[in-house]
Amino acid sequence: MVSLLVIDDDEALLNLYRLMLKRQGYRVHTAASGETGIRMFENGDYALVITDLIMGGMSGNGVAEYIRRSEKGVIPIIGVSGTPWQVDARHFDAVMEKPVSMKDLVTSVRLLVGPAFEEGRASPGRALRG
């Protein structure tokens, strides 16, 4: 299963992102701050990171810069912000303006990391038709 890390200081948005991405079959971990997100990133194995830009403490730009400097390889990063003009675009693979369309977010995730499950395999709770 593909693991994603979502970082946002808005608990309602974290829950919405988690719910929508889990419904698509992704394993979703969340962090309510940039600092917590960085700790989780260091201790986890994520295929993609979604981060808000404006948060108390470390900003999404700081999170993305840290991830880009890490030795974990190239990890796609989606920036989500009500102020997309403040995004340091060189650190992000995609930038989305709040309010984010969940359909567009899922599409962006799929484009960057692929579907949550391999083609031809059943996803949890779904049987293959013969």
UniProtKB/TrEMBL annotation:
Q: Which Pfam families match?
A: Response_reg
What Gene3D superfamilies does this protein's entry cite?
A: 3.40.50.2300
Among the record's GO biological process terms, what is one? phosphorelay signal transduction system
In this protein, which residues make up the domain named Response regulatory? 3-113
4-aspartylphosphate PTM positions read: D52
UniProtKB keywords: Phosphoprotein
Report what the protein is called: Signal transduction response regulator receiver domain
The top of its lineage is:
Bacteria, Pseudomonadati, Thermodesulfobacteriota, Desulfobacteria, Desulfobacterales
